[in-house]
Design brief:
The structure is a homodimer of 299-residue chains.
Chain A (H helix, E strand, L loop, with lengths): L2 E4 L3 E7 L2 E8 L1 H9 L5 E7 L5 H9 L2 E8 L5 E7 L6 E7 L19 E4 L4 H10 L5 E4 L3 H6 L1 H8 L4 E5 H8 L4 H9 L5 E5 L5 E5 L3 E4 L13 H16 L4 H18 L6 H5 L2 H15 L2
Parallel strand pairs in A: 1-4, 1-8, 2-6, 4-5, 8-9, 9-10, 10-11
Antiparallel strand pairs in A: 2-3, 6-7, 11-12, 12-13
Helix pairs in contact in A: 1-8, 6-7, 8-9, 9-11
Chain lengths: 299, 299
Amino acid sequence: MSLLVVGSIAFDSVKTPYGEVTDALGGSAVYFAYAASFFTPVRIVGVVGEDFPEEYLADLGRRNVDTTGVRRTPGRTFRWKGLYQGAMNEAETLEVQLNVLGEFDGTLPDAFVDSDYVFLANGPPAMQHAVVDQVKHAKLIVADTMNHWIRDTRDELETLLARVDGVVMNEGEVRQYTGEENLPRAGRKLLEEGPRFVVVKKGEHGALLVTGDEFFAVPAFPTADVSDPTGAGDSFAGGMMGHLARVDDASTTELKRALLYATVVASINVEGFSLDRFKSITPDDVERRYEQFRNMLSF
Amino acid sequence: MSLLVVGSIAFDSVKTPYGEVTDALGGSAVYFAYAASFFTPVRIVGVVGEDFPEEYLADLGRRNVDTTGVRRTPGRTFRWKGLYQGAMNEAETLEVQLNVLGEFDGTLPDAFVDSDYVFLANGPPAMQHAVVDQVKHAKLIVADTMNHWIRDTRDELETLLARVDGVVMNEGEVRQYTGEENLPRAGRKLLEEGPRFVVVKKGEHGALLVTGDEFFAVPAFPTADVSDPTGAGDSFAGGMMGHLARVDDASTTELKRALLYATVVASINVEGFSLDRFKSITPDDVERRYEQFRNMLSF
């Protein structure tokens, strides 16, 4: 089934205790697309500036990512600069240059409006709404968001939640949105807003799935080699949506498996900077770690 | 198999967002004994003051907890006063009155030196060593500890780790002891000190089991009704050791099951203050929640 992601394409400058990179390829849509491409073809929609190398798009194309929805605009590509310290659970944002991302309105190429599985990566809720307006026949729409949208555009986010099937948020955002410390309770509060399921990302503590009548939790895959957590959340979402689109089934059973795949893919991504690890592995490597993870969790 | 716990018996005064209690029954050995008593008979060793009600010991006795190792000493019982706020992940200690606990040296009644399964609850490492000296035929010795022992009595703790089969520590203590932020890596560092397995307690994020060749993780049971986290860690240890002693098997397979039982028992305990919830349930209630948890974790 066709899988669409709408989000940012970025140059990231990141420093962690294990190294640093400057102006490396990144962005929510890019991490998502690379992660999902291990499972199924992906359609990516975003905006880049004149400084964005054609080669980066060509590489996505070679991975079965359709980049016809990437618009090139006069100006510079979105830039983010961040720092991870200690347990690296949260990035400290040092600098944001919105650049061409500021003009991005979420308009899809005609060929993408029939997308079946749709992921709205973090972005202005108004833009996320605009995407939902276009994908009339979507089977599953899942949205991510971020602390400042919850703070500044609460109303638009509330109406968005009523229009999506699932949300993927980190634990801090879930607590912020619901005003509820207890995560199972917070998850249920979010369900009342409309989505059929809520996935709570907890970084090194794994992830939770909350549905109307089920609760499921996966730990993080115990990788001892975390180099750079940038893109972990979007890689997680890419693994999750990639699996769901591949099996064309978003039942609770497949959602659980999707959380395992999401965890596995995110765990691989954080072992290197930027997209380095994704570029060096194959779908077989993903399946191998999935089997390892399954065995690890069986009792 | 016989199960021994050596630790504190206390009066706790606790305030959480959901209520408060004053001078309520508590202490590591007490929480452990109540939790383990759902699985197997328990031997408890500790010290109380003249102010400790005989009725509390009688109640333990009715639960198949052998209290002949509880020494009554002139003076007042150990008292702890704590506050939980927000997500209630950590207690803020407001007051500690050591009282008679200061004279506790870990001497066991003769009848207890043949104990098979032994849990050394948090306490001075010198006292924990003294217990290990006495239980010559133990099949499994597991120790807990705490931040100030790691800071102040590091050497004694290191020699203790070389004498035990397993440790149960919370994530902050594991990081403090090893100087390692990454928990899988920290767990492996602890194994190098001697124990065969390490259990890392992560509160609302569940627990990890690290052995020489396996890694296992359980989430917390998603109870929406956390009233008072006091004793959660010791209840967890009680559920774990209770199951291991009951099946007389500390293989990795049974350790995994023990972590599920530990989680279930701890999740019940935190739904009330002091020992209130443990006093109102039966072993059947524990088994029922265990089955629910098993189903929840299957995929």
